[in-house]
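# step 3/5: fold
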Amino acid sequence: MCAGICAKIMAVTLTYSGTCPEACPGTDSPVPSASSASAASPSAAPSASSPPRATSARHPEGGSTPSPRPRLIATDLDGTLLRHDKTVSRRTISALLAAARAGIGFLMVTGRPARWMTVVGDLIRQLPGSPVAICANGAAVVDLRHGRHRLVDVHPLDRRDALATVHALRAAAPGVTFAVESTRGIHYDPDYPPFFPGDPTATTGPVDPLLALAPAAGAAPVIKLLAHHRELDPDDFLALARRTAGGHGQITRSSPTALLEVSRSGVSKATTLARYCARLGIRREEVVAFGDMPNDLEMLAWAGTSYAMANAHPDVLAATPLHTVSNQEDGVAAVVETLLP
């Protein structure tokens, strides 16, 4: 799947209010599987007295490639910036604040919806300026300042494409259930396992009528269709969905379970990140990116310098020449610290 990742794309993050439970499906890779972690390239073993450091990665041709001073750090959240307990470590916060003082920008690029961005509330409150996130795998860009998640940009999924995807996957994978994510909340199929029981934004009922009807005036845009299967292997399910429904949307995954995320065709973390950078006059060579799951692949391919976490999915490790230590060992901070004077 990764062998052809040289066509580099772009993406950004969006946000809304709320919280996400530990290892809830649908976030950017909650806690990676043991098989993913074991596939990581060897990393420098840290001493007991010093924090883990990034691997001294080199490009396949054998020589280190110099890059310009970065202007932007773009990072995934779950399995990347966040530890397994969904916190941002003191070390990581210190590294990002030092980067900000050195003039290096910071952007969160996540599969999470905006309402689940409170998980990084402490970090947001300490960052200078007006922190922005690209959410829902690039479908939305959100201003996070002061806890008021103002949508800056939205790339909605057409309801007709979402419904066509539902029909195609039901035929190809009997037993699949769906959820519809909008900028205001989530709607579950009756048999879909809810992410967060008690979510005040959630409604339940068949998704077909919701998608078949033309949206009423003022209706919230659909930003993501979620498809869940209780039995299929996650990577097999992704391959099947791309074969049977790939013409209707951008299909990816970030969960360790068989949970797929469908955005509008051509919308990814990479495409939104590229637009964001273009507006600020930042070249791709000036971007350092971090990620761990298939929904990060396009972003990691687009950025001038990219790191796969040691705990990343095997496809991400194979497609990304540079590796850092795991999210639990503060792999993002380990690299950021090397960028500072």
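# step 4/5: annotate
The mean pLDDT is 84.
# step 5/5: archive (pending)
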